[in-house]
Design goal:
Helix content is 35%, strand content 23%. Strand 3, helix 2 and strand 4 form a beta-alpha-beta unit. Helix 7 packs parallel to helix 9 and helix 13 runs parallel beside helix 15. The chain is an alpha/beta fold.
Amino acid sequence: MVSNKDRRPVSIIAMGCSKNLVDAERVAFMLREAGYTPEFDPARPRGIVVINTCGFIGDAKEESINAILETAELKKRGRVSKIIVMGCLSERYRAELPGELPEVDRWYGKFDWTSLVSDLEADSNDNIAAPATQAHPWERCFQKEKPKPYSAYIKIAEGCNRFCAFCAIPLITGRYRSRTIEDIAEEVTALASRGVREFNIIAQDLSYYGTDIYGRQEIARLIDRLADIDGVEWIRLHYAYPKDFPLDLLDVMARRDNVCKYLDIALQHIDDTVLANMQRHITGDETRALLAEIRRRVPGITLRTTLMVGFPGETEEAFCRLKDFVREQRFERMGAFAYCEEEDTAAARNFADDIPAEVKQRRLDQLMAIQQDISAEVLASMVGREVKVLIDSHEGDMWTGRTEGDSPEVDIDVNIFTDGNRRLRIGQFYTVRITDSDFFSLSAELIDQ
C-alpha cells in the first residue's frame, strides 16, 4: 500500500530534444507507479525536482546549468526538497559537476537513471510502495495534463556511429544500438490502444537503423510494420542521415497512406571542402542527387533540414554556395545554427575556431532571411488546397492544427476559424481548405464532414 504521504509532487523539467523527452516520460511513469505525482515542466517547481539535461551545444548546456542553479535557489528557500539531475549534460561531465553544484542531491547520466525511484525510496522514510509488477522498459506516463496525449515520440535507437567532426553526441551516448522491430511494434501497439494516433519516429540516425542487430538497414521494414498497426494514423520520421540513405524507405513512404510525406534529414552544408572537414562522408553533388531522388520517388514530400554556418575554414565562397543551395532546393522547412566548438570533438582537435562570432551571426541571419522568403512562397502556394489536419489547441473560435508536413513544436501551424456553434475535438483529424498564409502559419476553413 502507498502510505498516507503518497502522491507527493515530483517536478520534472525536461530539456533538450525529443529523445530526452521520451526518457523524462519513462521516469514519470516509474514515479507515478511508485506513488508520486509527476508534473512536467511546472511554472513553479516544488518538492522533489528531476532535471533532465541537454549537453549538445553551448546554449543548451548553459540552459541546463541555469535550470539547476534556479532550482538550487528554490531549495535554499525551502520550496524544493531534493534536486535530481540526469541526462546528457551529467553523462558528459559526471566527474566535474558534483563538485561544482553541491546543491544537487543525486546525479544520473544518460542511461543509469532507471534506479532513480529505488534510490528515492532508499533515501525516504515514507514507505512509498514499489510497483506491484515490473513495467515494460518502454512504458511512459501519459497523464491528462500531457499537452498532446494523442501524439508520441518513439525512440528506436540510442547512440551514433557517424562521428561527425563537430558533434559530441557519440561521446555522450556511445555507439549505435537499435531496438528490435518486435519491441518497437509492441510499444506502438500499446500506445495506439490508449488513443495515441500520431507517432514521431526518432533516432540520432534513422538511416543506420537495424545495421547493428540485423546486419542491414531495416528502417523501411520497421516503418512498413508500424503502418500495419490499428489506430496508427500518422508516422513521421526524424532524423535521417544523407550518407548511405536507405532508398527503400521512400517506397514505403510513397505507398503507405499513414506514413507522412515528411522527412527530417540534416544536411549541414553543401560545399565539398566543408563537408569533408565536417567528416560527413558525402559530397555536394551526391547530396543534390539524393534530394532529387527523394522528391522523384515521393512527390509532394515535405523536406526539413538543418544547416550549419561558421564551421572552421568556411570561406565566403563556401558560404555563398550554401546560400545558392538553399535558393535552389527551396526546402519546405529549414533551420540553421552557427558552429559552436565542443571539446574533445575532431573539429576541436583539428581546427581553430577561426571565424569571428559576428561573422557567424551575419551568415546565419542571411541564410535564414533567404529561407523566410522561400517559406512564405511555399506556404502561399498551398492556398486553395484541401489538407488533413490534426487539431492541437484552440482559443475562442480559432482552432490550431498541423498538416502531415508539420512536426509538433517545430513546424507550421494551421489556424481554423469556426463560428461559435461549431466545436472541434483536440486530437482529432479534419479536412480543411487553406484560405490564407503568412511567413509562419496558414489559415483555413473547415470542410463540412
